[in-house]
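Lab notebook: predicted structure, single chain.

Context: the supervisor wants predicted structures on file for every construct in the current expression panel, including those that have not yet been purified. This is the next one on the list. No modifications to the sequence; it matches the entry in the shared construct table.
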Amino acid sequence: MSVVLERLAITKALDALRLREPKEKKAPRSKSPEPRLRPLELKDIEQVAAIYAHYVADGVATFDEVVPDLEAWSGKAGSIVARGLPFLVVEVGDRVVGFAYASL
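Prediction complete. Output recorded below exactly as produced.
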């Protein structure tokens, strides 16, 4: 009878320990929209120009020393797309946060 009671006590103690173990928590999902890669649209030129302007003024990722204006960006984008090359933007929500294009 004492062996049965000991096993019962051990079982209860193990059950109590299992209840105290932290349950695995799932990482909270971000409420921000997912990034979306898509082809450039005419409405994106201003945001692309603003992104690039930052790197001309404050970075070392370009050899440009003067920020290209919107007309220059429109011409460049038109030329790239007319040659059948990709000009892509990354959009989060309604904001362009990055871009990439191919050139020859």
